[in-house]
Amino acid sequence: MNIDQQTTxxxxxxxxxxxxxPGFEDNVKDYLISAMEPYVDEFVYNRMGGFYGVKRSxxxxxxxxxxxxxxxxxxxxxxxxxxxGMIQFTNLGGVATxxxxxxxxxxxxxxxEEITGVVANIPKHFRTGSEGAPKIEDLMLDIxxxxxxxxxxxxxxxxxxxxxxxPLTQLSDYRFASKAWDNRYGCLIGLELLELLKDETxxxxxxxxxxxxxxxxxxxxxxxxxxxxxxxxFVVDCSxxxxxxxxxxxxxxxxxxxxxxxxxxxxxxxxxxxxxLLEIANDQKINHQYYISPGGTDGGEIHKARIGIxxxxxxxxxxxxxxxxxxxxxxxxxAARHLLYEATxxxxxxxxxxxxxx
Length: 358
Ligand SMILES: [Zn+2]
Known about the structure:
By secondary structure, this protein is of the alpha+beta class.
């Protein structure tokens, strides 16, 4: 079973262009549920908004394996509509303050309509030179309205969310620019894992899905882990690369393959799990690189849930994430997908036992 590369690219376009700020992930969830539906037996839902497709095994008392993405992306929430028709907002997730002026962002209204605007900035001609980077609360989105009444007439309200308005662009043979590769990467790899496993019968029940609100502090992950109570979990997430002037330590290099994430601010990779992944990567000649990050993933919550859940992150890195555009290399995606596919397919009761207690 293989997936045509154009199918993957068109899924990347759809997924990365969807509007899914933290807490407002419904558009992403609706797309994923309909795309995963042919490959799963049922869906389970937690009460925070996360969902998982379940591919049942034929064995009695099967173990449970979880593959967890997050559906949300960094964004903003509207806090004020000024008399002049300008829109002010607060951030949802961690963003640098100095990259937003002059950028195009899009609002999602309560009727699920998208409205594009430009973040206001003072033209160079009128600057004194001492402006510095504005705080997020001083930024304003200009959607072309002359006053507050016309903004409201278009359906925009306080509490609505905003994300970058960035179409997927292919930059070169293997590299693309998009918003939200963190973490529609994870949504895509989960969907394609299910498709690749379509004709396989597994020794365990496989739960593949996505959590909400990762970007505001891993808030959706625990509800998912406690609902499923998995024996093993894979977290699929996209991490920042810092290789523009050459690779810096273990901070990720585009085209360097999937990430073997041995340490981050929320989790250490168990040695037995590390060795399981390395053995597969070496055996299958899957391009991979060690990765260390001060940040974290939903793995930070999942591995501590219940009595402890052996968890590994199967990731990729991308440049400039948490901004309007990330740049990523699709070969890294294929390496990650190959590793996740093999690491899932090879699991059986003995291997799971080893990952749990060694
Ligand atoms: Zn992120």
